Automatic annotation (TrEMBL):
<comment type="similarity">
    <text>Belongs to the class-IV pyridoxal-phosphate-dependent aminotransferase family.</text>
</comment>
<keyword id="KW-0028">Amino-acid biosynthesis</keyword>
<comment type="pathway">
    <text>Amino-acid biosynthesis; L-isoleucine biosynthesis; L-isoleucine from 2-oxobutanoate: step 4/4.</text>
</comment>
<keyword id="KW-0032">Aminotransferase</keyword>
<dbReference type="InterPro" id="IPR043132">
    <property type="entry name" value="BCAT-like_C"/>
</dbReference>
<keyword id="KW-0808">Transferase</keyword>
<dbReference type="Pfam" id="PF01063">
    <property type="entry name" value="Aminotran_4"/>
</dbReference>
<dbReference type="GO" id="GO:0004084">
    <property type="term" value="F:branched-chain-amino-acid transaminase activity"/>
</dbReference>
<protein>
    <recommendedName>
        <fullName>Probable branched-chain-amino-acid aminotransferase</fullName>
        <ecNumber>2.6.1.42</ecNumber>
    </recommendedName>
</protein>
<dbReference type="InterPro" id="IPR036038">
    <property type="entry name" value="Aminotransferase-like"/>
</dbReference>
<dbReference type="GO" id="GO:0009082">
    <property type="term" value="P:branched-chain amino acid biosynthetic process"/>
</dbReference>
<dbReference type="GO" id="GO:0005829">
    <property type="term" value="C:cytosol"/>
</dbReference>
<dbReference type="InterPro" id="IPR043131">
    <property type="entry name" value="BCAT-like_N"/>
</dbReference>
<keyword id="KW-0100">Branched-chain amino acid biosynthesis</keyword>
<dbReference type="InterPro" id="IPR050571">
    <property type="entry name" value="Class-IV_PLP-Dep_Aminotrnsfr"/>
</dbReference>
<dbReference type="GO" id="GO:0008652">
    <property type="term" value="P:amino acid biosynthetic process"/>
</dbReference>
<comment type="function">
    <text>Acts on leucine, isoleucine and valine.</text>
</comment>
Length: 286
């Protein structure tokens, strides 16, 4: 079924949606994005995603394309027009189309480009992968130094996913200076006893919206949270490991570089945090 997508104010059949070849998102990867999951036809953690969108835009000096109320209305319209019960909404804002290619940013008369589309994913919450867990490999983190900005420069993360696929596993975790930064498209954690360990927020990693909520729920559930780097060896010796992202919620990680973590099955902490996260976020969904 053809989707209805959004381009700069218009709702169009996907085959009719067009963006200029001069758009800086296309030529320079000069754009940012957000992915919001949808459960029961409602938006999960939408305020967090809006906040980070503004931060990403601000760091790059790209103007907000419209008001937050308009963005919420647009997300809701896409859910309705595409009858999404479970899935995701992808939103992208670029610096727009200056009508030619140049390294110099265009002036303010060039308006940002705003596009969005839905992805229908039945069983997003009840994903089979959450029952078996992810296997991951480690690869060097050779991304740029502003990973805190959610830009559309996703070539290396995409290559990392392909390296995982080639190795017969589900994902790659990036390693820099001997410590894990994050997954290709998720934040990375290990569990030791009652303690959840995850890298602290700097420009080395994306400040995950799911991460913020999961750590809040973890603290409320009396887990200890330690924000610091950890090594692959430490992860392999941990009781459990997991990843978080809007698209996977809390995903147990059961193997790293061929070594089983804990029992080699999804552990009780990751499983419980996934349940709490889904319960709480469904209640707060917009
Ligand atoms: N880290 C990276 C590199 C990501 O690409 C993502 C999501 O796409 C995340 C972490 C998780 O962020 P969020 O929880 O906001 O989806």
């Amino acid at each position: 079924m053809s989707r209805t997508v959004y381009v700069n104010g218009d709702y169009l059949p996907e085959a009719e949606a067009k963006v200029s070849i001069f758009d800086r998102g296309f030529l320079m990867a000069d754009g940012v994005y957000e992915v919001t999951s949808v459960l029961g036809g409602k938006l999960i953690d939408f305020d967090g995603h809006l906040k980070r969108l503004h931060r990403s835009l601000g760091e790059l000096g790209i103007a907000a394309p419209c008001s937050d109320d308009d963005l919420l209305a647009m997300h809701r319209a896409l859910i309705e027009k595409n009858a999404i019960d479970e899935g995701m909404i992808y939103l992208q804002v670029t610096r727009g189309n200056p009508g030619d290619r140049s390294f110099v940013f265009p002036d303010a008369s060039v308006k940002p480009t705003l596009i969005a589309f839905t992805q229908n994913i039945p069983n997003l919450a009840d994903a089979p992968a959450a029952k078996t867990g992810f296997k991951v490999i480690s690869i060097p983190d050779i991304r740029w130094g502003r990973r805190d900005i959610k830009t559309v420069q996703l070539l290396y993360p995409s290559m990392g996913k392909m390296m995982a696929k080639k190795a017969g596993v589900d994902d790659s975790w990036f390693v820099e200076d001997g410590a894990v930064t994050e997954g290709t498209s998720n934040n990375a954690y290990i569990v030791k006893g009652n303690k959840i360990i995850t890298r602290q927020l700097t420009s080395d990693i994306l400040h995950g919206i799911t991460r913020a909520s999961v750590l809040r729920f973890a603290a409320e559930a009396q887990f200890e949270v330690e924000e610091r780097p950890f090594t692959i060896a430490e992860a392999q010796a941990a009781d459990e490991a997991f990843s978080t992202a809007a698209s996977i919620f809390v995903m147990p990680v059961v193997e790293i570089d061929g070594a089983a973590i804990g029992t080699g099955k999804p552990g009780p902490v990751a499983t419980r945090l996934r349940e709490i996260y889904l319960d709480e976020m469904r209640k707060a969904a917009l």
